[in-house]
Write a structure and sequence with these properties.
two-stranded antiparallel sheet; 342 residues; 13 helices; alpha+beta; 2 domains; 10 strands
Length: 342
Amino acid sequence: MSAARPEKLPAGVEAWLEKHVEGYCGPGVLCKFGFGQSNPTFRLSAASGEYVLRSKPPGPLLPKAHAIEREFRILRALDGSGIPAPRVYALCEDASVFGTAFYIMEVVQGRIFYDQRLPGLSARERAALFDGMNAAVASLHSIDPRAIGLEGYGRSEGFLERQVALWTRQYRASEGARIAAMEELIVWLPRHLPSEQPGRIFHGDLRLDNMIFHPTEPRVVALLDWELSTLGDPLADFAYHALVWRVDADLFRGFGGLDLDALGIPREADYLQHYCARTGRVDLPHWDFYLAFSLFRVAAILQGVWRRAQDAQASAADAADIGARAAPLAAIGWEIARCPQS
């Protein structure tokens, strides 16, 4: 499907939707959202209403990447849990229907912000939105996965060791020119693994723009993009979420060089303290390791974005530019590892 204009659904997809999505009535039209570096996401407009269709990208895929089947499973488990997440309707694993596997979910009305600095809002509004975001992340990490039937969704034992190995493999599978900081982190991270935290739901991509806020209230009504989700160390999940305090605005939509007090954006220490209070923690041990690992992980992800751009399989037009940020982010991660502050 083209990203340039809406397109009519093929007859085979129409037939599948009528059979598997309760109440669906066509004809349907797809329009690809302009965001997303990984799994193509479309708005599906039909006579019966509005839906979201999320699919795997075309072409050869890296092992365990683009796991929309897992997205569908966890979203179904979260329904009714109190964790803000969109409702899903049906999963199609038969690639012959649409060209790749896909699932259908509801359209959640609300606000999505793509700039962490929240331009156009007042300092009070920014502070309230950051507090709402903090509350949503803390609630996710407070729930017992077994309580919603996710005990088999992943192995939390040895999570960090496996994650370091996984993202090392993913990086190797998509690397181009040598990135010195990645080579250093590949050696350093396995030697500095902290003790394991109790396993919780690990979202894997808790960015501001993967959250939908209420149309008028400062609270999160939906967490999006569960492709990387599993069970694991919640501090690794939270550290990735908190990376914006460690990078510049033009590199990873961060806060480097900004007057946070004037903007109403909490300082990193205050944001961490609020998370601890909400999750019942006294502190965040080995925080420097988690930050270094998170930067290593995001650099490996962006290297994959770069590789897909080279192979003409990218989901967004700016994939090559986004992928080029892998090296400077890895350099920040290695600097944190070399000069720990906690």
